[in-house]
Design goal:
Helix content: 40-55%
Strand content: 15-25%
Number of helices: 10
Shape: globular
Length: about 220
């Protein structure tokens, strides 16, 4: 177990960390890719491609000249199905409430489309504990760019404090490293403990409940 350090701030990834929205995301990617005449990708291939900006993920499945149209179709379709099969991961509400009660600032930083991320946060009840949720297109930056993390920390009024970023993908690990934050990996997404540690995570946890125990919240 890692040595416990009192966090000055905690930043959360969303997909695969606080929620499992895989069913709707995979369905939307599949529908958009097929609508443009491309071969249907394997579900696991889509799952493991998630974490970066939408356009970067789409580039794995469609030609560059079709990315703009694919993005438009995804943005139009996803809000219609985004709550289908959505799961709030076990322990999510409890740990967010415990962090709030401990007086530790927290925010969501995600590459999910910003307005969509805030709708999901409200739907899941996260917004009762987290007032700041920043996503793709809210700024000109995306994870793992340090500028996006700096933007979120500035909204929290955080400077020179020990910060944690909690996420489920190598993109989250790189985001933390770029911003000089401690990264705790959660294996509730599509990447293993080994993969997250190799990417540079300080420690990994199999669940949010295990993480909460380690933080003694």
């Amino acid at each position: 177990m890692p040595t416990r350090t009192i966090p000055g701030v905690i930043l959360w990834d969303m997909d695969g960390t606080l929620i499992d929205q895989t069913a709707a995301i995979v369905a939307c990617f599949t529908e958009v890719i097929e609508s443009l005449g491309y071969r249907t990708p394997e579900v696991e291939t889509i799952r493991r491609s998630l974490g970066g900006p939408l356009q970067s993920t789409l580039l794995l499945f469609v030609e560059e000249q079709d990315v703009s149209e694919a993005t438009k179709r995804f943005r139009a379709r996803f809000p219609q199905i985004m709550f289908d099969g959505l799961i709030v991961l076990e322990g999510a509400i409890e740990i967010l409430e415990a962090i709030q009660n401990a007086g530790i600032p927290q925010a969501i930083i995600t590459n999910k489309h910003g307005p969509t991320a805030r709708e999901v946060s409200a739907y899941c009840g996260f917004d009762q504990y987290i007032s700041i949720c920043v996503g793709n297109k809210d700024t000109e930056f995306s994870k793992p760019d340090k500028a996006m993390t700096d933007h979120v920390l500035a909204q929290l009024g955080i400077q020179d404090q020990v910060g944690y970023l909690i996420g489920d993908s190598p993109t989250d690990v790189t985001t933390a490293i770029n911003a000089n934050l401690i990264c705790y990996g959660i294996t509730t997404g599509s990447h293993s403990s080994k993969e997250l540690l190799e990417a540079g995570a300080s420690a990994t946890f199999s669940s949010l409940n295990e993480l909460r125990e380690t933080l003694a919240l």
